[in-house]
Design brief:
Blueprint (H helix, E strand, L loop, with lengths): L5 E5 L5 H10 L3 E5 L3 H8 L10 H10 L3 E4 L7 E4 L14 H10 L8 E4 L7 H12 L6 H4 L6 E4 L9 H7 L2 E5 L2 H11 L7 E5 H32 L3 H8 L22 H8 L5 H25 L6 E5 L14 H11 L4 E5 L20 H7 L2 E4 L4 H4 L10 E4 L6
Parallel strand pairs: 1-2, 1-4, 2-3, 4-5, 5-6, 7-8, 9-10, 9-11, 11-12
Antiparallel strand pairs: 6-7
Helix pairs in contact: 1-3, 4-5, 9-11, 9-12, 11-12, 12-13
Bound molecules: ligand SAJ.
Ligand SAJ binds next to helix 9.
Length: about 425
């Protein structure tokens, strides 16, 4: 018999839907719950509302076999996995309202013996907070933050760590950090993850698991900030930063990341702020790295403005709008912010090339902007700004762009 007959995943986005589909593919009955009617209807038709390699086939198979269903309202299950957004507020403090709303949704259907796992990246202390919130919502049940191993519910944190674009492989192959409010909470969560994870499930406390996830993304952010700072220094010193990094990385203990137009996505650009918010005095490098990466798009815009000043009629082609290569995700994308700023400041005629989308995002509504093909852009533009290293752009040769001013923020021309 499976240790879990029915699992419910709350939040069917970039993490929740692949997780739900993978668990369903292991023969477990999965009910996905989301507030979006569009997401629920799409999934129930065996289709997907997000782009991720192979996810469409997996969801279709899981829905067809009847193992995966989506719904707007919760039902009883053995385990509940919460995969909702944890953005930050205006003042960069974490916004836990989606987690609280998810708990309010599931609270009425919880029964003794249920496991609740938080997957959303969260500030230290959130899992304990969940236990407290559940105690308030269900005073009839004993929760582990006060009752320890005698509790009626198991509460744990298992932060998602998958890379967009490789979600289905990494969901299965990555090691997982599993932190419980008590050791038994962690053990029960490990049983759940062992249904589909081939990597190791590493047991710890909920607080350490929370901090581990934030640390991983802050580590990346600090290292990208180093690369971005280097790129600005190299511009000043008239050195090709890409060549420099390649050479320095030949040292056996040096591994510099790639500069870019800024750091995008909803993880690396967000999570370090949760550490800064929890320990504002101590988190100095982490805060500075965030500032350096947030300032990079402004630096790129200034470079474009200077290039535009050389032309009577500047025609600027922006190659890429997504937050990184070969995905359609435009959320928190520095490339999109740069394009928007160019449009709003009327810096020239702007051509936008983004092979992964068919329609411009709402953020650009109201501007005189259109999607253009790469060929049209190459024909018309006198300034070419590479904002994303999509595979379609990487085939370009320096000979294709000799007549243009090129601002290559991703180093596709090396
Ligand atoms: N970037 C650079 N230079 C680099 C690497 C990345 O400028 O050398 C930029 C990218 O272009 C992008 C941003 O950083 O704008 C983030 O991209 P990414 O591919 O490094 O990471 P994400 O945000 O897609 O996913 C990260 C991953 N975390 C780590 O690699 C430590 C992933 O494993 C996490 O699950 C995910 O965050 C998350 O959900 O937290």
């Amino acid at each position: 018999m499976l240790p879990f007959n029915r699992v419910s995943v709350i939040g069917l986005g970039y993490i929740g839907l692949p997780t739900a589909a993978v668990i369903a593919s292991r023969g477990v009955e999965v009910l996905g719950v989301d507030v979006s009617e569009h997401a629920v209807n799409t999934i129930n038709q065996g289709k997907v509302h997000i782009v991720e390699p192979d996810l469409d086939m997996l969801v279709q198979a899981a829905v067809t076999t009847g193992k995966l269903k989506a719904s707007l309202s919760p039902e009883p299950a053995d385990a509940f996995m919460i995969a909702v957004p944890t953005p930050f507020k205006e003042n960069k403090s974490p916004d836990l309202s989606y987690i609280k709303a998810a708990l309010e949704t599931i609270a009425p259907v919880l029964v003794k013996g249920n496991l609740i796992v938080l997957e959303s990246t969260s500030p230290v202390g959130t899992t304990e907070q969940i236990s407290q919130w559940l105690a308030e919502l269900r005073p009839d049940l004993k929760l582990p933050h006060t009752e320890g191993e005698q509790a009626d519910l198991f509460v744990a944190h298992c932060p998602e760590r998958v890379l967009p674009g490789r979600v289905l492989q990494e969901l299965v192959s990555n090691d997982r950090i599993i932190g419980g409010i008590t050791p038994r909470c962690a053990e029960r969560a490990i049983e759940l993850y062992q249904l589909f994870v081939r990597g190791e499930c590493l047991r710890t406390t909920a607080r350490t698991a929370e901090m581990a996830k934030l640390t991983e993304n802050a580590f990346r952010d600090v290292n990208i900030a180093f690369a971005n700072e280097l790129s600005v220094i190299c511009d000043t010193l008239k050195i090709n930063v890409w060549e420099l990094i390649k050479l320095a990385n030949r040292h056996p203990r040096v591994n510099i990341l790639s500069p870019g137009p800024g750091v995008g996505g909803h993880c690396i650009a967000v999570d370090p702020w949760f550490i800064v918010d929890s320990a504002p005095e101590q988190a100095q490098i982490i805060r500075k790295a965030r500032e350096i990466n947030d300032n990079k798009p402004l630096y790129v815009i200034e470079k474009i403005r200077q290039a535009a000043d050389q032309f009577k009629k500047p025609v600027i082609a922006c190659l890429g709008l997504a937050f990184k290569a070969d995905i359609d995700d435009l959320r928190e994308s520095p490339a999109l912010d740069i394009a928007k700023k160019l449009l709003s400041e009327n810096i020239g005629e702007i051509l936008l090339v983004e092979p992964n989308i068919k329609q411009l995002p709402a953020k650009l509504a109201g501007y005189k902007a259109e999607l253009t093909t790469l060929n049209q852009a190459l024909e018309k533009a006198n300034i070419l700004v590479v904002l994303v290293d999509h595979k379609q752009f990487k085939t370009l040769q320096p000979a294709d762009v000799t007549t243009k001013v090129v601002i290559d923020t991703r180093g596709i021309f090396g």
